[in-house]
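User: I'm putting together a teaching handout on how sequence relates to shape, and I'd like one worked example. Could you take L-rhamnose mutarotase from Arthrobacter bussei, show the sequence you're using, and then write out its predicted structure as tokens right after it?

Assistant: Happy to. First the sequence, then the structure tokens directly below it.
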Amino acid sequence: MERVCFQLQVRPERIPEYRERHAAIWPEMARALKDTGWDNYSLFLRGDGMLIGYVECEDFAASQAAMAATEVNGRWQAEMAPFFVALEGRPDEGFLRLEEVFHLEDQL
């Protein structure tokens, strides 16, 4: 299982709407994420707009490609793109992936 953590920056003035949009995402978006292998997916948002995402996948590149091929993802990414600072392209392709440097289970 691959563990992936990534970072994006939400525009501070859009934080309330970003939270609202994620309080109940489109059901077809949730189903597409699950069907393409995005497991244990969470987003964490700091008050200044720093967004950290975490997901577990068997193969992140394959899950990302499968999700990119869905119609609902194209619509979702187009709606979400204006929420982010210094983003070129779609949010699901423009995030900064963080390197995992510690995992407790690996050391036990």
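A couple of points you could highlight for students: The chain has a mean pLDDT of 95. The domain at 2-100 is CATH 3.30.70.100 (Alpha-Beta Plaits).
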